[in-house]
Each structure stands twice: as C-alpha cells, then as structure tokens.
Design goal:
- The chain has 417 residues and is of the alpha/beta class.
- The protein has two domains: 115 residues, Urease, subunit C, domain 1 (Roll), CATH 2.30.40.10; 287 residues, Alpha-Beta Barrel (TIM Barrel), CATH 3.20.20.
- It is built from 16 helices and 16 strands.
Length: 417
C-alpha cells in the first residue's frame, strides 16, 4: 500500500476533535463528520473532512483513492490502558468459587488468587509467555484495540519479572498492536520472600529496576496499594524513588480501601487505576490533580463489586479513562468495548465520555499524546464498524465487531471494507 492514500467515503467519522482532556462531555460536543473521508500520509492522518472535498484534494495531490464499498463508521483505534495479558494458566476455579459466594481471602487461602498465577507463570518459559500473549494481542486487534498497556507482576522474583518483561517486549515486536510495558513486581509480597514488605520493596529497587533500565525493558512502574499488598508508606518510598530514577508511574489505587489515590497524586503518577472504593474526598482530590482516573469495569464484573464512580469523577472535573484490566483472575473477559459499553450505562456516561475514555483520554493515561483522535498529525490508527450510526457501536454492547482496522495507516483487518 502507498505511504499516502485517501480513504472514503465513511458513513461517519468520529474525530474526537476539540474535546478536552478533563471533565464531562455532552453529545453536542462530539464532532460527527457525515459522508467523510481521510488522507493518510506516512502513518499519520493528513486530512479529515467531507468526502467530496477530500477526494478533490487527493486528486490534486495525485493520491490513490481507496473506495469503501460498504457503509462504515470510523473511530480512533481503541487504547486499552490497563491489562495483565502476559500470564500462564487459568483461574476458572477461582471464578466458580467467587460466583458461589467465596471471598477473595477464602479463595487465596485455598491456594487460588494471584499466587496461583504466579506459580504457573514462573514455570512457563519466556517463549511460551510470548506465544500466549501474541494470541491475546491478535484477539485485541480483531476487537479494534491498536494500543495496549501490559504489566508484569506474575513472577515476583528478579529473574521471573525480567522474563515477563522480555516476553512482553518480544510479543510487542512481533505484533502490529503497539505494546506499552509496565513493571508491576510490587503486585503482592511473594509468599516465599524471606522478609518484610519494605524489604521486598528495597530488593526490587536495588536488584530489579537497574536491570530494567539497563536493558530498556520498560519506562513505567506500578504498585498495588491494599492491605494484602503494600501500605501507603511502602508505596510512597517505592514510587518516589522510581520517579527520581525517571520512571513514569501508575498506581493500583482505592480498589477495596482508600488512600492509594492520594499517594498517586502526591507522587505525580500519570494515572490512578481501579478507584471502586473512592469517596467524595478522593473524587475531589483527583479532579483537582493532573492524575487520570482509570476505571476498570472488567474487574467490577469479574468480582461482582461496585463500579468506579465515573459519573461523579467527570462531574467534579476529572478526566476518565476506561480499560479492560484483562487478567486471569478478576477480569477474564478482556473485551474493552463490552466493558466500556456496560460501564457507560451503569454510570450514566454520555457516548462522547465513553469514547473519550477508550481513545485519547486512555492514551493520555499512558503518556501518549499523538493518538486517540482522527485529526491532522495524529497516528493513523482507525477502527471502523459496518453501520451508519456510531451509536450502534455501544447499543450492541461489544457485539458489533470491527469491520476494518488500520494501524499507522495500513489496513490490517478487512472484514467488510
């Protein structure tokens, strides 16, 4: 395919142009370009507008016109800003126990929980982890996700976590999906670590992260702040040290108890993820900060617990990203569009708010400014659905699947284009 091409006509193009990073969004703020078209140049969006005008511009510039034969609605490629898709094994037994009324603690005491996945992931080879992750990345691409964050955190030893990050890097190099790696060795304190939680934190800071930087395996770090994981003091030391070392930060915060979101704010994290337990004080503090709240409705559905207070966060003036949290334990579904559609209805979000949460606001949570909108200069990641009305995408709650996906201007999936 030529590095410069014009594509159209789309029934609608949802550009996300002009929408702010923070705060509530109304339906009338959404730019909907009817009978639109785009020029794609060297992996970027060159122009967007009404099809007749774009066709004329393309002819003047001598560009090939790619004619769409069926009605498609184009939105920016989806960004899943929080996943754990590098893992081995299954936790179907945990899911059945939870569904039957067992608590998280009871399941863990019976040999399930994160530790079960840790044991299986430790036993898996780097090659096996890479292969299974590639399968999951292919599924994400088919569902319209063009950028995904992937965490380590299921090995909890220096060599095991490095193995995970190397597998994540290898899968990212082989996949068309852009993979953003995040270090999460501070997921829980491993049962076989002979020391305190703070001693484990110091072990990671001195033995693990220097190798991560030396091998350039990741630029982001995460920690799980909860009673069964790491407390506020341990988390502050971990995060402040890593920020000084040049890492971008994100935090598993306020999932079951509060306090983590304030640590995220104080330590300058890009995002605070989960927030199901956040109250009014946490909502207001997040709204007054530059931290991007990331809702993880997949975990709420998988655990049968409350959703992140998305409506209250937006009304308070905060940003809001939405991610799948795809993981083998609490969020096994792993379908971003389904998660976002259900969450939007549960929290009474406008469709522009849902769309923003899985495109440019999710990209911002990863520190990425050049994707998530279909406007001139942005990376040409496009997900298109066979319909004439963008509202159908969410009406079907994830069951209307993408008909075509373009990654950096290249058509990589073509079901109906």
């Amino acid at each position: 395919m030529s590095t410069s091409i014009a594509i159209g006509p789309f029934a609608q193009i949802i550009s996300m142009n002009g929408l702010p990073l923070k705060g509530a969004l109304r339906d009338e703020q959404l730019e909907v370009i009817e009978h639109g078209a785009m020029i794609l140049k060297n992996g970027r969006v060159g122009a967007v507008g009404e099809a007749t005008a774009i066709r004329s511009k393309a002819k003047t510039e001598g560009l090939f016109w790619y004619e769409l034969e069926k009605p498609l609605v184009a939105i920016p490629g989806l960004v899943d800003a929080h996943t754990h898709i590098c893992f081995a094994g299954s936790r179907a037994r945990d899911y059945a126990a939870r569904s039957g009324g067992k608590t998280y603690l009871e399941i863990a005491q019976a040999g399930g929980g994160i530790w079960d996945t840790v044991q299986r992931t430790r036993a898996a080879s780097e090659e096996a982890l890479t292969a299974s992750m590639l399968d999951r990345l292919a599924r994400l691409l088919r569902s319209g996700v063009t950028t995904v964050e992937v965490k380590s955190g299921y090995a909890l030893t220096v060599e095991g976590e490095l193995k995970m990050l190397r597998a994540i890097q290898a899968a990212g190099q082989k996949s068309l999906v852009d993979v953003i790696p995040t270090c999460l060795p501070a997921h829980i304190v491993p049962r076989d670590f002979a020391g305190t939680a703070m001693e484990y934190v110091m072990y990671l800071l001195t033995e693990f992260f220097p190798i991560v930087q030396q091998e350039q395996l990741a630029k982001r770090a995460d920690i799980f702040i909860e009673a069964e994981a790491f407390d506020l003091v341990e988390a502050r030391h971990y995060l402040s040290t890593l920020r000084q070392a040049g890492f971008d930060l994100t935090v598993h915060a306020d999932q079951f108890s509060t306090g983590g979101s304030q640590v995220a704010i104080d330590c300058g994290a890009r995002s605070a993820d989960h927030l199901e337990a956040s109250g009014e004080m946490e909502v207001q503090a997040l709204a007054q900060s530059e931290v991007i709240p990331v809702a993880l409705p997949g975990a709420s559905l998988g655990l049968g617990c409350a959703f992140t207070p998305g409506r209250r966060l937006l009304d308070a003036g905060a940003s809001l990203a939405i991610a799948s949290d795809w993981n083998p334990g609490s969020a096994p579904m792993g379908d971003l569009l389904t998660c976002a559609s259900i969450f939007g209805m549960a929290e009474k979000l406008s469709l522009p708010e849902v769309l923003a949460g899985i495109t440019f606001r999710a990209a911002a949570a990863l520190g990425l400014q050049q994707r998530g909108r279909l406007i001139e200069g942005q990376i040409a990641d496009i997900t298109a659905f066979e319909t004439t009305d963008y509202r159908e995408i969410f009406y079907h709650q994830g069951q209307l699947r993408p008909a075509a996906v373009w990654k950096s201007g290249q058509l990589i999936s073509e079901a109906s284009a």
